[in-house]
């Protein structure tokens, strides 16, 4: 019995030892130590390579000798990644694994839409192009894709606005036209379709944006490309055989960043008492109010955005669809915007994969509500500052307070609630594409597109409106509509072939036709309603309408354009690169003698690192030299009547029938424009030279560019004699304008470890703008003044002058010389020869002098992206330097005479202005300020949960703050103001929307 027990104990002990052995063996297997060396193809060790166990955070990096050591289970997979090299995955089946990394040519071979009508690899690009991927676009409550690019592209100057219905001013490489609006902005191409409205794209649907910056890239778009081309590529279906569903959304709160420091009630009374200003006619002296009108008008704006997309497919057919909804509330009461956008795409292959067919239908509906922003006090943005703080918001009976004895003074809350301006925009676009693969490398393409835009403008001024010429009408309703239709057909052939493994040839030739039927609309204004219940919904119930209320401004304009274009690309051994393009456009917009224009370009590139003498050097990983020249035109912003003789209503005459004695009134017509059969294209020639470089295994890459751009045959209106012409001005080609600049882009990865990575991108640009000429032998103008700040006592004084030898936006004002013995402002006085002869309190036009320019000398953007394990932090800085701003807002509210008319002024008046200084507001260099600023435009923190279970492929949450802080010396509300048009750099009091700080919280889920 004892032997049996001992045997059992021995058997148990053996079993325990066997289990321990198995466990230790399993543990040893689980903790298999893997070592090795990582080298490049030449055998050189690579330091800093990231070695990571797939699906985990277990990892390490190689040392200076390229060696690594990691504990990992057998059967698992190691991932080796290093900047400039292709990612490599190796399954662990032994303890010693040496890895040879191959150089990653993906950054050079990345597919880009270069100059339209095709694509080419990055390494073959010979022109200046910047590509911004979706992950690198700005994050914020944006309604226009152009806002996503601010600070991301050198030379692209964008001034954003916090107005939910506002649009950013945007220019590329300086102003090159004297026509405003679309004529000064880049040309937009979306998914290969030119001239598409940006309202049809939600930011979440964007895959990438390519900005074509020089003429050798843009000339293929000919007459529309003088201001650069922005190509937007949207997300499409996938070929993985699965259906992917993605939801992204955010909520956001906007708060006003800064407002003007206006006098409150006690400050206003104290200043009035100290300076013997009688305010009694303008408030109830027995019951004064203390109203902060900015607090009454402003609010916290709530916004939310939702985007859901579906995509999928297989090798034959791919599809995608998305639906986006955004609702944005402005911080100014009465301002808001909501938009719903739907996009769909379907592509399939047929004819044994020889024919690709695709169709997409896109639509959007936008509702906008704005507040009054007219001049002469009829702006909510103005009235919330000037309105008297001593009066209440409402009277005792509940009606809005009003003092009709005060000129140009209107209760801002009355304008918010009693004067309503709404716009509905409907966009519809259909696109059909076909690509026939005739033989290997030879494709024929056909693109058809149709776009319809409808605008419905609905305004109602209630019976309680205080606005002049409206308050007496007892309710006024206005409604108008406009429709634009754009039809396009483009067909082109692409041929790409490689000969003898060294000669790469690309040929493209095409034809396009387009027709724009714009501005087809009608409008009506009626007034005198019994009540305000129906507003503009039943205008037939109004009691009055006159013929002047019929809107005849919308005149159908039909423009047609046909084009022939071609391109040739040649590459020898990926070392010597050549590209040439030509486009010939014919447009009905121009004079009958100049309907056609030709726009050529040529560019060369030399990839120096491909030379044999560069093979063994250890400094450059990439070095390419580019040079190019091209000519492009500017036909944007024209209608069918630009070069035609037009007539319009000029008045009335009464005809009395000599027989019956009855009388009738008839319109009189007069010329409103002269015909110019010689009107032709503005032509912009641009020379560009650039160097692309890469160091430290391409952990440091960048580009340096220099360009010289000159635009000739500028279109401008010139005075002519009415003895010779029916009308007093002629639209003609005369002037020249130039832009020269330098641009630098740096991309770097300063730190990369197992768990932490820091990527940074910096771009800096300098541009010098100059008006070379404004006159010729036929048409002449010495200068043209712009920028009337509309300040009291100086109603006809401008602050900018367009003249030869100066940039667009040249400030030209009086020179403030301080105060005289009575405390009144005085200014430098010059004689007829331009000599300073003293000071004066009554300066004239001849005393004005140059005082800086609105054009920035430097624009920059600096993005920093930090990742730590699953956390990500992005800090984006943006700014400009060297520009001037005319603070028209400050000039107006420094006018002490406003107090005598029952209005408010800035608090600084109490310490800076005497009540007798009636010239304090004079437009002088006193109000020209340095507009430079540095802004932390965006700070975003995110966490990526990765895959959750079997149905959530990825989940990411983030929090973002926009406009975190701004460093500036500017005294106005915000230094980021409109830099477009012919009056850039003026801080207008009636249209400057308060800048906001935005806090947003978002989520992105992929199912």
Protein architecture, described:
This protein is mostly beta strands. It is built from 9 helices and 50 strands. It has a 22-stranded antiparallel beta barrel. Strand 22 and strand 23 form a beta hairpin. Helix 6 packs antiparallel against helix 7 (412-418). The two termini are 67 Å apart. Mean pLDDT is 89; it is low at 1-30.
List keywords for this structure.
single chain; 1007 residues; mainly beta
* β-sheet strand percentage: over 45%
How many strands appear in the DSSP assignment? 50
Largest sheet: 22 strands, antiparallel, barrel
Oligomer state of the chains in this structure: single chain
Low-confidence stretches: 1-30
Helicity level: under 10%
What's the total helix number? 9
Secondary-structure content class: mainly beta
Euclidean distance between termini CA atoms: 67 Å
**Shape category:** globular
* Mean model confidence by pLDDT: 89
Radius of gyration: 34 Å
Task: Detail the topology: elements first, then pairings.
Layout: H1 2-30, E1 33-39, E2 50-53, E3 59-61, E4 67-71, E5 77-81, E6 88-91, E7 99-100, H2 106-109, E8 111-112, E9 120-121, E10 129-133, E11 156-159, E12 169-172, E13 187-190, E14 193-194, E15 206-212, H3 215-218, E16 229-234, E17 243-256, H4 265-274, H5 293-297, E18 301-313, E19 317-329, E20 336-350, E21 355-370, H6 380-386, H7 412-418, E22 419-439, E23 442-461, E24 476-499, E25 503-527, E26 550-551, E27 557-572, E28 576-587, E29 596-607, E30 620-634, E31 646-656, E32 663-673, E33 682-695, E34 700-719, E35 729-752, E36 756-773, E37 783-786, E38 800-803, E39 810-813, E40 816-819, E41 825-830, E42 836-840, E43 849-853, E44 858-868, E45 871-881, E46 884-886, H8 888-893, H9 909-912, E47 928-930, E48 933-944, E49 954-968, E50 996-1006
Parallel strand pairs: 1-7, 13-16
Antiparallel strand pairs: 1-4, 2-3, 2-5, 5-6, 8-9, 10-15, 11-12, 13-14, 15-16, 17-18, 17-50, 18-19, 19-20, 20-21, 21-22, 22-23, 23-24, 24-25, 25-26, 25-27, 27-28, 28-29, 29-30, 30-33, 31-32, 33-34, 34-35, 35-36, 36-44, 37-38, 39-43, 40-41, 41-42, 44-45, 45-48, 46-47, 48-49, 49-50
Helix pairs in contact: 6-7
């Amino acid at each position: 019995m004892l032997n049996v027990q001992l045997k059992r104990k021995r058997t148990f002990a053996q079993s325990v030892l066997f289990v321990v052995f198995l466990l230790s063996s399993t543990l040893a297997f689980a903790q298999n130590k893997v070592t090795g060396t990582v080298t490049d193809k030449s055998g050189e060790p690579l330091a800093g390579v990231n070695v990571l166990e797939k699906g985990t955070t277990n990892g390490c990096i190689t040392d200076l000798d390229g060696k690594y050591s990691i504990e990992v289970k057998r059967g698992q997979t190691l991932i080796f990644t290093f900047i400039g090299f292709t990612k490599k995955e190796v399954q662990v089946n032994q303890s010693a694994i040496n890895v040879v990394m191959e150089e990653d040519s993906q950054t050079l071979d990345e597919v880009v839409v270069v100059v339209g009508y095709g694509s080419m690899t990055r390494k073959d690009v010979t022109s200046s192009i910047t590509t911004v991927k979706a992950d690198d676009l700005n994050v914020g409550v944006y309604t226009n894709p152009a806002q996503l690019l601010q600070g991301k592209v050198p030379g692209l100057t964008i001034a954003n606005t916090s107005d939910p219905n506002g649009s950013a001013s945007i220019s590329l490489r300086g102003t090159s036209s004297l026509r405003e609006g679309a004529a000064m902005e880049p040309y937009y191409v979306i998914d290969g379709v030119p001239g598409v409205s940006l309202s049809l794209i939600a930011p979440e649907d964007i895959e990438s944006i390519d900005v074509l910056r020089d003429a050798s890239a843009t000339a293929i778009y000919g007459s529309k490309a003088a201001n650069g081309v922005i190509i937007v590529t949207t997300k499409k279906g996938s070929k993985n055989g699965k259906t992917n569903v993605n939801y992204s959304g955010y909520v956001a709160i906007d708060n006003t960043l800064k407002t003007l420091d206006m006098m409150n009630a006690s400050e206003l009374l104290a200043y009035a008492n100290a300076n013997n200003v009688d305010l009694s006619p303008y408030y109830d002296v027995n019951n004064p109010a203390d109203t902060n009108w900015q607090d009454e008008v402003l609010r916290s704006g709530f916004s939310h955005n939702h985007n859901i997309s579906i995509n999928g497919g297989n090798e034959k057919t791919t599809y995608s669809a998305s639906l986006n909804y955004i609702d944005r509330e402005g911080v100014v009461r009465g301002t808001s915007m909501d938009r719903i956008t739907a996009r769909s795409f379907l592509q399939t292959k047929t004819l044994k994969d020889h024919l690709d067919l695709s169709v997409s239908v896109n639509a959007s509906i936008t509702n906008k509500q704005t507040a009054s922003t007219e001049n002469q006090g009829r702006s909510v943005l103005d009235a919330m500052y000037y309105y008297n703080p001593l009066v209440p918001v409402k009277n005792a009976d509940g009606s809005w307070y009003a003092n009709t004895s005060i000129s140009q003074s209107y209760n801002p809350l009355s304008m918010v609630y009693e004067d309503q301006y709404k716009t509905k925009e409907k966009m519809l676009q259909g696109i059909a594409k076909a690509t026939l693969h005739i033989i290997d490398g030879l494709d024929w393409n056909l693109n058809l597109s149709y776009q319809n835009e409808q605008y419905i403008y609905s305004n109602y001024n209630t019976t309680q409106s205080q606005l002049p010429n409206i308050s007496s009408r007892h309710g006024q309703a206005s409604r108008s509509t406009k429709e634009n239709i754009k039809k396009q057909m483009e067909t082109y052939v692409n041929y790409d072939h490689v000969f003898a493994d060294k000669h790469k040839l690309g040929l493209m030739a095409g034809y396009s036709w387009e027709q724009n039927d714009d501005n087809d609309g009608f409008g009506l204004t009626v007034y005198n309603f019994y009540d305000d219940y129906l507003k503009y919904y039943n205008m037939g119930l109004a009691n009055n309408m006159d013929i002047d209320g019929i809107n005849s401004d919308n005149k159908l304009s039909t423009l047609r354009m046909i084009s022939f274009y071609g391109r040739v690309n040649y590459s020898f051994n990926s070392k010597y690169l050549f590209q040439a393009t030509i486009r010939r456009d014919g447009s009905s917009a121009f004079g009958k003698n100049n309907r056609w224009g030709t726009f050529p370009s040529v560019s060369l590139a030399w990839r120096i690192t491909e030379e044999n003498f560069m093979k063994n050097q250890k400094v450059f990983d990439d070095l390419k030299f580019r040079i190019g020249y091209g000519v492009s035109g500017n036909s944007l912003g024209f209608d069918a009547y630009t070069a035609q003789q037009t007539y319009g209503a000029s008045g009335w005459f009464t005809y009395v029938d000599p027989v019956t004695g009855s009388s009738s009134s008839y319109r009189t017509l007069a010329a409103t424009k002269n015909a110019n059969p010689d009107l032709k294209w503005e032509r912009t020639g641009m020379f560009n030279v650039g160097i692309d470089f890469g160091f430290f295994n391409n952990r440091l890459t960048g580009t340096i560019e220099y360009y010289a751009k000159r635009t000739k045959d500028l279109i401008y209106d010139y005075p002519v004699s009415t003895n010779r012409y029916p009308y007093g001005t002629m639209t003609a080609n005369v002037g020249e304008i130039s832009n020269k600049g330098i641009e630098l882009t740096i991309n770097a990865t300063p730190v990369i470890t197992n768990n932490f990575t820091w990527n940074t991108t910096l771009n800096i640009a300098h541009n010098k703008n100059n008006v070379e000429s404004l006159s010729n032998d036929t048409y002449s103008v010495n200068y043209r003044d712009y920028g009337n700040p509309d300040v009291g006592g100086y109603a006809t004084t401008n602050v900018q002058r367009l003249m030869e030898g100066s940039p667009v936006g040249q400030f030209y004002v009086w020179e403030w010389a301080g105060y005289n013995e009575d405390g009144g402002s005085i200014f430098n006085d010059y004689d007829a020869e331009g000599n300073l002869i003293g000071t004066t309190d009554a300066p004239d036009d001849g005393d004005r002098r140059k005082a800086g320019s609105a054009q920035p000398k430097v624009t920059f953007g600096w993005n920093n992206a930090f990742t730590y394990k699953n956390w990500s932090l992005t800090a984006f800085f943006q700014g400009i330097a060297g520009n001037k701003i005319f603070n028209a807002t400050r000039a107006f509210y420094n006018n002490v005479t406003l107090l005598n008319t029952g209005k408010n002024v800035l608090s600084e008046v109490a310490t800076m202005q005497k009540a007798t200084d009636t010239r304090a507001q004079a437009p002088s260099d006193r109000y020209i300020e340095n507009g430079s600023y540095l802004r932390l435009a965006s700070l975003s923190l995110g966490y990526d949960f990765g895959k959750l279970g079997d149905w959530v492929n990825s989940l990411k949450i983030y929090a973002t703050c926009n406009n975190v802080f701004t460093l500036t010396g500017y005294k106005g509300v915000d230094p980021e103001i409109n830099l477009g048009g012919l009056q850039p750099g003026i801080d207008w009091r009636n249209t400057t929307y308060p800048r906001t700080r935005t806090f947003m919280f978002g989520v992105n889920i992929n199912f």
